[in-house]
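Appendix B, example 12.
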Amino acid sequence: MCVSGGGPPLAGQHTMNSNAEAERTAREEIREPVEGEESSPHTDKSLLSKPPPAPTQSHTASPPSSKQSVVDLRKLKREELKCIKPSDNTVKPFAGLKIQDSSFLDQIDDRSNCDKCGKSRKYFCYTCYVPLRCIASHVPSLQLPFKIDIIRHPREIAGKSTAVHAALICPEDVTIHTHPSLPDYSTQSNDVVLIFPEKGAMSVEELVRPAQPPALKRPRPHLPFSKVVFIDCTWNQTRRIYCDERVRGLRCVELNKHETLFWRYQRGKPKTYLATIEAIYYFLVEVYKATNTDTSYQGQYDNLLFFFKFMYEKIHSQYDTDLLRAYKDL
């Protein structure tokens, strides 16, 4: 769903070189004392002049099994991360979309200060929701047919959340609230819908069908809502927000036709649970298709995935895609 389990903790495999591991083990076991340090009284000094032992079978790296090969990248050291082989994956899931070229982002090496808060950032400020001055003129901008509110869990790390992408690209139509500070939607339940896979949630077609009878043609289809609410957090954190009485009474809409491309792995959750920016994008596309049956979708909202596509491709170019935990069937 839309909750992005909201940054990105990645997971993958690291294959150790057997000779390097053996030498490191030998150095740890037979370490020469540094200047000014006495060797341990339990150290056999005759070993200090001996070369490290040749690798034995116990130090030989065996082909990793499917369970051994998956580790948390957050637990690896910088040197170990550098040893992970780049991906040769050629799958391009965004090839058919009309997304503005983002190659200029690859040219940015240094961080800059946000014009609003002065904090150091790379591409955009995830607390002020503005792109940095050096890229502001190149970032696409969209206007949406309805307003979007995003409720972010207070423990969701803003820098890892894809919800910020929507606020950057649609600044006039997207507002981000941090729970528990949010509007009281219970007073406007007839005009607001919540994207959440609750039991009894309706599909997009069921949501818009009453407002668009087959025999009625309107140049600008009427929508049975003016605002859509998305929850931005990990899936284990959603209940705290969903059970809030200000949100609880809203009509729920479920998106279950699409599989996520998000790189943040969440244990035990189906692939139809989308990142926040994915949920926003797919909802817009489905609403357009359901209310414009006489015209085909022409990529009007594809640029919503501008930053998401860039980060997806950057991650997949640096790590072996087949070994990233988020893309394995576990």
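Helices lie at 18-29, 78-82, 163-169, 204-208, 238-242, 276-291, 306-318. The two ends are 19 Å apart (CA to CA).
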